[in-house]
Amino acid sequence: MIRLTTSGLDIAYDDRLIVQDLNIAIPQGKITALVGANGSGKSTILKTMARIMNPSKGSVLLDGRSIHKQSTKEVAKQLAILPQNPTAPDGLTVAELVSYGRFPYQKGFGSLTKEDRSIIQWAIEATGMNDFADRSVDHLSGGQRQRAWIAMALAQETDILFLDEPTTFLDMAHQLEVLHLLQKLNAANNRTVVMVVHDLNHATRYAHHMIAIKSGTVAGEGTPSEVMTPAIMREVFNIEADIVPDPRTGVPLCLPYALAGQPNADQVELSGSMLNENKLTAAGA
Question: What is the pLDDT of residues 110-146, one digit of tens each?
């Protein structure tokens, strides 16, 4: 089932066209990873699909209707976004941050209802933040802080969750912590997750669907096995890579060994060894 699509989407910064004629479909209830080189337009696409940016042409359709023609609150009840490096006011507690997720459901300056508080508590527990509910967000570790922001997004009760590089600046343990959480939320709640991912091997391990972006256009789309190929790695990232199965899960892993069009390290080392051997042979003669 498909609820979210783009149709003939052009996105520009001033007069500079970043994305051109983009037509993609996000599978419902799956995790989709947007991958590509720096500056390829991944985050720009995500922001436009989440209604943070306006397209210069085309549309983003949710259930067949343009999200840019719907009201902010109407859209906020259907999709939530966690941008890169979000910041909270000093002293704001986790519970207070998560409560902001109920904004689309409040009328005027109304206070939180019993239902709101129940959903906030559920979001805190679902992200494993119960022990930190009264702690200031700026006193949390990187992984805890990301979980707090994800809890806020969950409190919006949306079917679709956008995340822009959710593991940026996190160490390996905290990266896995966040990705495991997203995997769990997807499996338990059938929540659609769309995320920009920097680490290709994280993308293949945690995503069901991948979209490879090059210069604002789709270079590859499909399952991890369909997208993680030497040809697409060469086209999108300008690298030569071996694609091997993960020994634990069987998903494809990317092992880069050279820049595209350049000899790999083994060839350089072999050439150097042969040159030295030839010199020694000549000297002996």
Answer: 689 999 999 999 999 999 999 999 999 999 999 999 9
CATH of 2-78+158-284, one of 3.60.70.12, 3.30.300.130, 3.40.50.300, 3.10.620.30: 3.40.50.300
* Nearest C-alpha neighbor of 259 from the set 243, 234, 239: 239
Which tokens sit at 194?
A: 């769309």
pLDDT in tens, 1-56: 789 999 999 999 988 999 999 999 999 999 999 999 999 999 999 999 999 999 99
Q: What are the domain boundaries of the chain?
A: 2-78+158-284
Task: Give the DSSP per-residue string, 22-86.
Answer: E--EEETTSEEEEEESTTSSHHHHHHHHTTSS--SEEEEEETTEEGGGS-HHHHHTTEEEE-SS-
Name the pLDDT band for 264 (thresholds 50, 70, 90).
Answer: low
Instruction: Please report which residue ranges of the chain form alpha helices under DSSP H.
Output: 42-49, 72-76, 94-99, 114-126, 142-155, 172-189, 200-206, 224-227, 230-237, 265-284
3-state secondary structure of 258: strand
The token pair that represents 27 in the structure block: 């599978």
